[in-house]
Amino acid sequence: MTSEFEGGVTPSSILLVDDDPANLLALEAVLEPLGQRIMKARSGEGALRLLLEHDFAVILLDLRMPGMDGLETAAAIKQRAKSRHTPIIFLTAETSLRLKSYEYGAVDYVVKPYEPAIVRSKVSVFVELYERGQRILQQEARLRQKEIEALQLQTRESRRVDQEQQRLWLETILDLMPTPLLFVHAETGRVHFANRASHELVGGKLPAPPEIAYDGTPHELTWQTNDGMRTFVATGAEIPQGYGHEAMRIVSLVDVTRLKQVEAELQNAVRIRDDFLSIASHELHTPLTPLKLQIERLQRREQTPTQLQEKLAVVGRQVDRLSNLVRQLLDVSRITGGRLRLTPEEVDLTAVVRDTADALSSESRQSGSVIDIRGEDSVVGHWDPTRIEQITSNLLSNAIKYGQGKPILVQVSHDNGNARLSVHDQGIGIAPEQQARIFDRFERAVSVRHYGGFGLGLWIVRQIVEASGGQVTVESQVGHGSTFTVELPR
Ligand code: ADP
Question: Which positions carry the signal peptide feature in this UniProt record (predicted)?
Fold first, then answer.
């Protein structure tokens, strides 16, 4: 189809075929008022050539031409599919050929010499027919185009609806997943979609994409979340462009905060256990050397009663030390196994403190610390006497051990329903950051090289005090001493 002019059709073409140029010119002049494009050929072959490239509304064909005559040309025109339906008007001087011309596909004929108005009128009928045909074809083409466009629009719309539904379906699934997932736009780096778990993580806000490589390697990162800083293992992957989607990156986040904590706790527990084992072997071994020595001496020579007493006193002290250590170990397994049973009876706390100070008199003498007991003469309550003795003994031993030979002040008092025991020394003191820790199992704030001990005394004190419904606290300043206070309901 020829190109379309705005609001109309292209002027149709008329082909004039005549071997005589004068005839061609005359005919052109006759048809010019029709305002159509006129093409001319001076032979049948020339006409066929033009027909290869052009469409014509009508062909005016001279019958008598040298070479290929009009009838042969008409036959050739009718043979070609492209020009089969192009109307041919024969020009002839011989009326005898009239009938023959119809056989060769003519739609009309004009007898020379012709009347110009008649020729013009005949030609204009075919031009109009042609143009009408063209208009119908164009309308059809326009209709078809519109149909195609409507169909395309419909297809696009239904595809959009399909995609939207797919997206909603996918988002619903991703929102149900407990793992935080982020879809990051590959080009802009902005978060394209974050599932509900991710939103919950950052309090409904859009999370920032983490800076990781999107190659499937797990990355550990800390993130500010609703729950404070948390540790995650983030894994990223590239999703190439496809299925109507741009290139994306997906990040999945696994919260390992608790795992990390447990890992650190476990490592710490292992470290504490290892430290304890080395301290325990050292502590249990230490009394054995003087013990062995005294026993050897006792075996070797005759002893005077005084010498005997002295040596037995050393043996006795070391045995006490050993049994105290073993008792602590037994207490650990008893307490952690939930078998700390208290048998309360009437106990005088002041009396227990005095007895303990007496029992520790040789240690305090050795260290140089004088124990001064003040307060109420008697503070009676309902407690387990053995355990109360353990509390006073542990606190007083510590005051002697860490008291640097300076005086120790023990105060026993009561107010309302509570008894209070405070043990104050003027020794090495405890740094603020250590003060909470020392009540934990095996925790120590001093080096084993300087001070022996299992790191169990204060833990045992706290366990007993808390099991009795009371509390134990410490106030201390490094270099200025410590005050341990126990409060017990009576
Ligand atoms: P230990 O057997 O090590 O003395 P404890 O549980 O009795 O175990 O004490 C824990 C830690 O608390 C000690 O290692 C020490 O660092 C600190 N501590 C306890 N009592 C005192 C005190 N009176 N003055 C200074 N430090 C103390």
Answer: none
The residue-averaged pLDDT of 397-416 equals: 95
Ligand 1 site, residue 458, Cβ cutoff 6 A: yes
The residue type found at 354 is R
User: How are strands ordered across the β-sheet holding 418-424?
Assistant: 371-375, 408-415, 418-424, 481-489, 471-477
Ligand 1: atom nearest CA of 455 is 8
Radius of gyration from C-alpha coordinates of the chain? 58
Collect all residues with Cβ–Cβ distance below 8 Å to 324 and sequence separation of at least 6. none
Instruction: Please report the sign of the dihedral spanned by the C-alpha atoms of residue 26, residue 31, residue 37, residue 40.
Output: negative
Judge residue 284's burial from the number of C-beta atoms within 10 Å of its C-beta, 0-12 exposed, 13-18 middle, 19 or more buried.
middle
Q: Are 8 and 35 in contact (CB under 8 A)?
A: no
457 Cα: distance to centroid of ligand 1 (angstroms): 8
- pLDDT tens digits along 206-228: 788 888 899 999 999 998 888 88
pLDDT tens profile 102-118: 777 778 888 888 899 99
- Is 481 close to ligand 1, i.e. is its CB under 6 Å away? no
Using CA positions, which residue lies closest to atom 25 of ligand 1?
Answer: 429
How far does the centroid of ligand 1 lie from the alpha carbon of residue 438, in Å? 7
